[in-house]
Predict the structure.
Amino acid sequence: MSGYDDVWFIINRFSPTTLFPKKQISKHYYYNNQKKILAQYKFKQTTQAKQIELRQFAKNLAKRHVSPRFIFDELISFCQQNSLIKPAYSVMQSIVSNALKIERARVLNRLSICLHKNIRVELDQLLENEDFFINSLYLKKIQKTLAQRKCVKRWKNNNV
């Protein structure tokens, strides 16, 4: 719904018998009214500086959790706590996706630096082996406790 549709919904809902002219409100009045409403509720527009702050906050959140939904919800909460009008949904999507891309690149870079070359080769071989994933998923599914003896016994039984 656009702002125009919202206005007519309210008019038809609360005063259906009153006649109102169907004029398009000018941008000057629209922004003037918006400023008054923002001042009344002590909210602020999301400026470029605040968007940079949102991006930084999203990057920090991505280090804690890689779920886009979690990051999005926390950004909405951040906007509410700082009395900001949340940016457009597409802007929020780009902030979340960029934060996740940066975190993914950071983790991959860190792994490539910290892991020994032999271990990297072994990990690549594990990723190529599809049976390993199927067996590990099966073990995760049937595992009830994490006791070492039980884990080793299950691994031997399942030939992993």
Observations:
- The chain has three domains: 3-41, 48-114, 117-157.
- Helices lie at 3-14, 27-41, 48-64, 68-81, 89-114, 117-128, 130-142, 148-157.
- Residues 112 and 120 are 8 Å apart (CA to CA).
- The mean pLDDT is 82.
